[in-house]
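Ticket #4471: complex job returned nothing on first submit. Input attached below:
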Amino acid sequence: MKKRILSLLLTALLLFTACQSKPDYLGGELTGDAALDESVKALLTEVCDGSSDPLAAVYDWLCSELKYRANPGESVGIFTDENTISLAQETLDKRRCDCDGEAALTAVLLRRMGYDAEIVQGQFLRGEGGQWVDHAWVRCTIDGVFYHFDPLYDAHFGSGDLTSCFMATDAEMQATHSWE
Amino acid sequence: MKKLAVFLLILTLALTLFACVGSAALTENDLAIRIGSFTVTPKTTMDDVRAALGEADEYAEAISCVYEGMDKTFTYGDVTFYTYPDGETDRLMEVYCTVGDVATAKGVTFGATVAQIEAAYGTGYTRSGKLLTYALPASSEDMEPASLYFVLENDCVAAIAMTAEHRAE
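Support reply: We reran it on our side without changes. The output follows.
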């Protein structure tokens, strides 16, 4: 009898712990901006909850939800922690951005998911036979390998299945992107 | 029996009326924004804007990430016009207003509540982030639809914007 009660208590404790613990996709780095961190948590929970592939779910969300709208008067120049945070917040609020805003939000989301994400500033080939233009996207190191994420490229110039620049390796990116 | 029939008739009428209010088909004119005495619709061109408002207080341009040519912004006080290049023409993509004598075609102004927006435009909107958006159907798959959207702060209108139908690329 005692054993049974003990076993039940242990099960209840395990279930309680499981309910209280943060999902994997929220285990990464916070930005330090309370409002943004809260918005990011809400978004990741909405997008990733129940998904078997949270990273792909977030990438699909970025490709489909964000609308392109350039803001040439407010070019970031070099990314800093401060302008990354403000751009990510603005992009999350307004769902409109250029490549800077998209890269900032992508980086913030992936960092919160636990990935070592950095913003890459380089150039990309705009459309087939198009021109090389300044651009920003995100790169992560996973198991020692660089993987690139460029939702803006996928949304506008990709193959349609949103995988052209999802976890693309350096070699895969080099046909359409250049960077230092 | 008669009472039941009357009750069902009233219920049907009420539900029909509710459905009409919730999904009233909007037109391009409904998406218009009045800025002072100038009304911007999804068909407004930048020539119309210049003719009505003169030269912009601020102007900026940069090579577009998506379109071939330059993306531009023309700012008049607290109103910004965003354009995208289409050959030699700068086409209106969006007008975005944060302060001033601005109202939508159905009278929504800054500070309006979601209930007031719904009373004017119905409930056929989408909400994402801080945006509440009424969109018309796009004329083709290659186009982003014309829309009227409100940026909400604490559930009140902090910005009013209209998007013209434009190439999605």
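The longest helix of chain A spans residues 2-20. Closing as resolved unless it happens again.
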